[in-house]
Amino acid sequence: MSKRQLKTALRQEGVVPIRMTRRAKRDMFAFLGFTFPNFFLLGVFVFWPILYSLYLSFFKWNMIAPKKTFIGLDNFQTMFNDPVFWLVTKNTLILAFFTVVVKMAIALGLALALNKNVKGRSVYRAIIFSPTFTTSVAVAMVWGWIFNPNFGLLRVFMRPFGIPPLDWLESVTHSLPAVIIVLIWSGIGYDMVLFLAGLKNISLEIYDAALVDGVSPWQNFWYITFPLLSPTTFFLTITGFIGALKAFDIVAIMTDGGPLNTSNVIVHFLYQNAFQWFKTGYASALALILFVIIMAITLVQNRLSRRWVHY
Amino acid sequence: MRRAAIKHRPLKWYAGRTFIHAILMLATIIIGLPFLWMLTTAIKSPAEVAMFPPIWWPETVRWDNFVKAWNTAPFGRFYINSIVTSVSGVFLEVAIAALSAYAFARIRFKYRDFFFLVMLAAMMIPGQIALIPNYVILAKLKWINTYQGIVIPHVSSVFGAFLLRQYFLSVPSSLYDAAEIDGLGHLKTMFYVALPLARPVLGTLVLYLFISKWNSYLWPLIVTTKQHMRTLPVGLAMVRSAEYSIGPEHLMAASIFVLVPVLVVYFIAQKQLIEGIAAGAVKG
To answer: Is the separation of the CB atoms in A144 and A254 below 8 Å?
Structure first.
């Protein structure tokens, strides 16, 4: 056996790695070249920030001073002892829960109605979906004006019920519900469109079979439609919840988190700490908490989707 | 028996239909009213704005509210900033997405699946986490108050790359083989085979990215401190704050400036956008 034959044999046996062919090499360089811009930017602006946030969370720093002061876990300790942090976390969870549940319930009802091949279906759909793409700053502006206690539109609808004029956005009890109402208004269309797509995927034969068995419409919904929609429901619950945890625009413009932080949420509190009060370390600790919560939800989603979702 | 059932159906059917339309109309009104309220407020006089109960249509339509609102702040400049950052952002992001998507769909590489997982992992990371680090990076680069500062941190693409990859994979491989036999390299195959076939999904992606970049508020708010670099949403928010004191009619008129391009794009392409969202989300 010549040296060359030996080499070939060894490669085939996997003892020596097979050398790349010219084509494989060319493909490798092409692959790396094609994906480089994306991975470079993801690395700098998405992955690196996690490590850097972790690093910053151990420091006291005002973002301008050249020196950062190492303070260990003080930022986390301050955070857990800060009543505002707990209030903001509670607000965020309340906001996420009510926004997601109410929005999905209404969206499902509308999707079921639209799925009946009604006349003017595409017009209804286009209008109900339109807030999804409407600039959130403008949405917050018009709703701020709707909630105006003296001349706002809402007062018109409250008056017949004898509800006295109320300054929603300045009220410690009503500012968070006001934000939730706006988020529901903006989000119904998206959920409705996804429910409609989910409904389209349910085969009509199942309903035919149910008709033969004399199933009532209510049973139809609870035993056929709702279980078969579970992939969509699950997807919307998770993405809606995560999306609501990141709420910022509407809060920042309508209430600025006030009054007395009663409508403040995590991302807005993070923004205030980082860019208004320059407590960079504390804000980084907040960012990490948000990151951990969202990762936990994502992991739970991966686990649960296998058990809950009926395909 | 059966006949009777058929005979009775129309009345019940009409009742059902009426009920369905009533619900849908109620929803449409609730969704549409804020838009209408915005428009009618924008054309009222200050006295009409301060009336309760409000009137739905002003006695004389005040179109000059728009002129006044336009002049309260450099809205022309805000428009240019928004157009430059949105258009260049969309262009870069689509290019980056297409390159990655092609690589993941068509180029063989040993660690391809690993890279793919890394990319998908990026989708789970909330952008809000990156606000401070990205600001620090931009400050080091002296990119605060620049177009590249607004654009570059947000042109990496996971969703777009994923969507286009799915589409590239669905193209019959015989077309790619033909391109290879003709001696086309990867770049040319992407440009002349993959992308032209992906035109519908590419169009939806472009519109979707344009609207989301146009609407974005938090990042441009952080990286612009000088008025002449603000984008429209940031400029609009600033107009309302204490530095100016303008009436609701001017505020609503200014909100309309910001909304018009988005609403025009939406109503022209609403079918494509809605169906694209539904398809993309279900597959994704």
So the answer is: yes
**Mutation target among B132, B209, B260 for the A interface, most CBs of A within 10 A:** B132
DSSP character for B125? S
Which of A35, A121, A237 has the highest number of chain B CBs within 10 A, making it the mutation to test binding with B? A35
Chain A hits for B278, Cβ within 8 Å: 193-194, 196-197
Angle, CA A247 vertex, CA A242 and CA A252 arms, to 5°: 170
In a domain, B283, yes or no: no
Question: Residue A59 phi/psi, 5° resolution?
Answer: -125, 160
Residue A118 falls within a domain, yes or no? Answer: yes
Same domain, B83 and B56: no
Give A-chain residues touching B220 at CB under 8 angstroms: none
pLDDT at A126 over 80: yes
pLDDT digits (tens, 9 = 90+) for A250-268: 999 999 998 999 999 999 9
Smallest CA–CA separation between A4 and chain B, in Å? 26
Q: What is the DSSP letter of A276?
A: I
B108 touches chain A (CB under 8 A): yes
For residue A5, give how far its alpha carbon lies from the nearest alpha carbon of chain B (Å).
Answer: 26
Give CA–CA dist B55/B48, Å, rounded.
Answer: 7
Residues A294, A167 within the same domain: yes
Residue A27 Cα to chain centre, angstroms: 37
ipTM: 0.90
Long-range contacts of A116-119 (CB under 8 A, 24+ apart): A116/B17, A116/B20, A118/B17, A118/B20, A118/B21, A118/B24, A119/B21
Separation of alpha carbons B119 and B111, rounded Å: 13
Domain hosting residue B77, numbered range: 73-244
Helix axes B75-106, B64-72, angle to 10 degrees: 80
Give the DSSP H/E element, type plus range, for residue A266.
helix A266-271
C-alpha distance from residue A271 to each of A287, B33, B87, B128 (Å): 10, 32, 27, 9
B282 interfaces chain A, CB cutoff of 8 Å? yes
Chain B segment 166-225 residues within 8 A of A by beta carbon are 185-186, 211, 214-215, 217-218, 222
Tell whether A51 is covered by a domain: no
When pLDDT is cut at 50, 70 and 90, the band that residue A114 belongs to is very high
- Please name the amino acid found at residue A192: M
pLDDT in tens, A155-203: 888 888 877 778 889 889 999 999 999 999 999 999 999 999 999 888 8
* Residues A18, A89 within the same domain: no
Full domain range(s) for residue A15? 1-43
Report yes or no on B253 lying in a domain. Answer: no
Same domain, B217 and B84: yes
Average pLDDT of the residues of chain B: 89
- What CATH number is given to the structural domain containing B211? 1.10.3720.10
